[in-house]
């Protein structure tokens, strides 16, 4: 049987040939015509033919949750997945991720320290789908994203870093959590960790505080400081808890070019005793007024801002992703752009598998 080479464009064209094109006055660019309708039209089109694609679409529908409360509220364990207690947050991250026990990848950075990067070069296809590379993800999705939006995503990715991460422990006001998320996104701190204290409590909608920042962050939820800190130390981070004490180091005297996890605590009780004992150092922000504390979200913002400024002064930049890491995170952001983008790639992976089998 004769074989032929299939490009990303030809596979995407086959994948979406059955979907109706939206009405538009100017003619579509050639590549857009090959790839089919934009995501809004795709979302309104008829259901995908395969069970695996339908499941992928259903998962994406749940990704549409847009409140911090719903994202962080853990889902009770199910019979099929008794260990699945982290709710919808895991599905925000689309690409394959490294296990915590994996060696820290990449060359050594300043001071001989290696910096953690969580993603692998691969998209997690639904059952029956072929493996999809990062290059394919970007090529398939780029025509569905406006050029101005693509440029903004590229700028954000260029200024992202995993060398500094934020940990919030036991916060009882999700308004503070949301504000801390917003500061992390604005400052290019990609990795955020939440140590929960009361998963049964209900909170008001705080999207107006976070401005949707949670969509673009890597958020991980932990049940205890020991669980969180153990994972972070395996990834090469030192743990710096905020605490007013005689052994506290001024944040202005710290070297933030070293991978560091900044930990802020509960609004009333502060950092827990367990977290203080397990941390590598205690740090504080100097205060010159009559009060001896900041609002917790303000403190988180000050700490992250100083960490970024210190890194820029020492290294000349904050964003420090290697070229391959940059491409991977770009693909991850493309996948988070809209709810339907993962469905597009799942369908592409299914068609790619079908074409591969047809050539055998």
UniProtKB/TrEMBL annotation:
Database matches in InterPro entries: Alpha/beta_knot_MTases, SpoU_MeTrfase, TrmH, tRNA_m1G_MTases_N
Molecular function GO terms recorded: RNA methyltransferase activity; tRNA binding
Gene3D superfamilies: 3.40.1280.10
Entry's Gene Ontology BP terms: tRNA guanine ribose methylation
Keyword tags: Methyltransferase, RNA-binding, S-adenosyl-L-methionine, Transferase, tRNA processing, tRNA-binding
Compositionally biased spans, kind Low complexity: 31-58
Residues passing through the membrane, by range: none
Pfam families cross-referenced by the UniProt entry: SpoU_methylase (PF00588)
Cross-referenced PANTHER family: RRNA METHYLASE-LIKE (PTHR43453), TRNA_RRNA METHYLTRANSFERASE SPOU TYPE DOMAIN-CONTAINING PROTEIN (PTHR43453:SF1)
Protein name per UniProt: tRNA/rRNA methyltransferase SpoU type domain-containing protein
Origin organism lineage: Eukaryota, Viridiplantae, Streptophyta, Embryophyta, Tracheophyta
């Amino acid at each position: 049987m004769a074989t032929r080479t299939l490009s990303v464009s030809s596979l995407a064209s086959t994948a979406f040939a059955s979907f109706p094109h939206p009405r538009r006055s100017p003619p579509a660019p050639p590549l857009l015509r090959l790839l089919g309708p934009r995501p809004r039209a795709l979302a309104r089109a008829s259901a995908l033919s395969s069970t695996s694609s339908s499941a992928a679409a259903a998962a994406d529908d749940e990704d549409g949750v847009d409140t911090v409360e719903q994202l962080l509220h853990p889902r009770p364990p199910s019979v099929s997945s008794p260990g699945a207690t982290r709710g919808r947050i895991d599905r925000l991250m689309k690409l394959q991720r490294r296990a915590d026990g994996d060696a820290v990848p990449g060359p050594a950075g300043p001071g001989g320290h290696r910096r953690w990067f969580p993603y692998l070069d691969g998209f997690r296809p639904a059952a029956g789908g072929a493996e999809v590379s990062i290059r394919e993800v970007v090529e398939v999705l780029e025509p569905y994203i406006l050029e101005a939006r693509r440029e903004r995503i590229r700028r954000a990715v260029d200024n992202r870093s995993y060398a500094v991460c934020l940990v919030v422990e036991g916060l009882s006001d999700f308004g503070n959590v949301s504000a801390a998320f917003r500061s992390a996104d604005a400052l290019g701190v990609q990795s955020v960790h939440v140590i929960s204290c009361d998963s049964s409590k209900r909170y008001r909608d705080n999207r107006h505080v976070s401005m949707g920042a949670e969509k673009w962050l890597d958020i991980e939820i932990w049940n205890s400081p020991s669980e969180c800190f153990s994972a972070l130390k395996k990834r090469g981070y030192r743990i710096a808890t905020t605490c007013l004490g005689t052994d506290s180091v001024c944040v202005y005297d710290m070297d933030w070019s070293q991978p560091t996890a900044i930990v802020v605590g509960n609004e009333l009780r502060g950092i827990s005793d367990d977290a203080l004992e397990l941390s590598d150092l205690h740090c504080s922000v100097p205060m010159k007024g009559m009060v001896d504390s900041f609002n917790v979200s303000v403190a988180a913002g000050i700490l992250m801002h100083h960490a970024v400024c210190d890194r820029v002064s020492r290294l000349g930049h904050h964003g420090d992703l290697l070229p391959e890491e940059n491409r991977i995170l770009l693909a991850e952001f493309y996948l988070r752009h809209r709810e339907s983008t993962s469905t597009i790639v799942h369908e592409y992976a299914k068609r790619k598998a079908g074409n591969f089998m047809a050539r055998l």
